[in-house]
Records
---
Amino acid sequence: MSQGVVKCWLEINKTNVPAEEEVRIWEITPKPPIDMEIRICVLNCKNIWMDAEGTCDTYFRGFFDTNEEIQETDTHFRCTDGKPDFEYRLVYKVKFPKKLTKFTLQGYDRDFFKSNEMFGEGTFELGDIMEDVALIKNPLSMNKKYYTDVLKKKYPQMKLEFDSEDPNKFWIQLWAKNKKGKLEKRGMVAMKVDIYPSD
């Protein structure tokens, strides 16, 4: 039995509506983009990967998309205990709705005589909290309650560990493939994220 294409037409006719009845008009114009400022603080680290000399000149690069703005922290030179400390803020001016809302943080070992070596990366999703900021027109922080109530079930692969003393501080795991092609842990980074609607 051969299959073909069926063409059809849809005809919309106006019916007589009593004058006393209100006709609902649906607004379908897209909402204008909302300007936001995303403040991502890279705080401190633990169990960071070390090179063959037992040190790491650690810095981090953060971005939503490699074709957009990429920002870097300063460098913690000659770290020997796997706990480089930063307290460094990355600030991004974005428009929402935004196509890519997953944030990537990459850890690097700075080298002055050859190319810098990326030793691991971690990601987390910010689309939901950005949407909520756009709705309420007020700042929001990535905190333990928001993560537990909104994000944990929706993004099971996004595992954030929140600080026991500060509910706004969370840890992300850095990962990288080893020589056998298997993922291994390369340390953890403590962070804070605050999102503000621009005036």
---
Amino acid sequence: MRKLLSKKYWEKMINKPEHIQNHIFNGKERLFFDACVWIYIHHPNYIGDWKARKYSSLLKLLKMLKCPIYVDILIISEFINRYAHIEYDRLPPTSKPANFKIFRSSPSFVNIAQDITSDVKKVIALATKCKLEFTTINVDSLLTQYPLSKYDFNDILIYEICKRKSLTMVTHDLDFKGFDIPILTANPKLIT
């Protein structure tokens, strides 16, 4: 197993998101891709999109450097749900079921679910599974923080995973701005 991020690296990167093109990767980084990054890489809706190109290029570089990428079941869950909602939102109004649950139960969703499953398997094959047991997180503390923060509860959990595992977050999501963990992004709004 690779060593945890050095204190020097952590201090340099903390509260200072860096653009993925400006970061000099040395193969020692331990990265945690947010669900939105996996969506940009895998969802057909983003083929040719600049975000898909940036994050796909990053993934190729990291594979070449043998840089470990970590994933957690929470990210897989977010990926699956977001992917399915994108598919629902893409339907023309004339053929769109009244709500998402009806869509998810429809025969046409079977093929979409198979595509999602295929892409999830690709993500899992590329990444190392993070083990963070429910019993190791102080859930009471997180629940106390939640009403006082501006963050989604899943984002707080993802932050906790990155902090405990000493992982650098790769995200395009502005919701992670202000978290005291190393962040890499292609989103210029997250850097400023």
---
Amino acid sequence: MLKKKYGYWTKENLLKSAKKYATSKEWRKNEYGAYQVAWRKNIIANVTKHMRVLGNSFRRCIYSIKVKNTKIIYIGLTSDFERENNSKLNAKEL
């Protein structure tokens, strides 16, 4: 992994980095250094405005999916319903 030169993470570079991701969780996972600098500079809210907001311990969703032509119902709990919905719809085992 390449280390960025000191001073590389300007507000503009942080914004470019953040624009590649849909959620702050995804950004933090893939470019932790950039995320940390934005947090330390206290501009995290500005560079993540475009991102989809995920839930937390209080803001989450319980969902159920009935499997066609069976007696199977999948019940789940998530803070990112959009991602869960897509992953379950594409799953072969259900």
---
Amino acid sequence: MKNCLAVWRSGATLTIGTLLITTLGCSQPLSTREKSTLAGGGLGAAGGAIIGAMVGAPAAGAAIGGGLGAGAGALTGDQVQSRDQEITSQERELAEQQAEIQRQRRELERERQRGE
């Protein structure tokens, strides 16, 4: 049991270290998809290590859990990022339409003043 705990701790330390280096080593801010992939991978690795420790293979559990978690995180992050991009596009289009409405109102007002 003591050996399993040591292996689990070293696996968790390796996973956390890898996530920190990956996150802090980026020159640009991470996208939503990348953040979700990292979070899913970390949670999956931690969960997999715990489950793997119960059956005597924490490293294998961490590797499997990390891979599955990263995949699930990437899919979720991709959906969220796509939705965010769509919302941003719609907001930009709405702002352009509002600006056009204001321009047309000003033009109508000028035409009314000319006609008076």
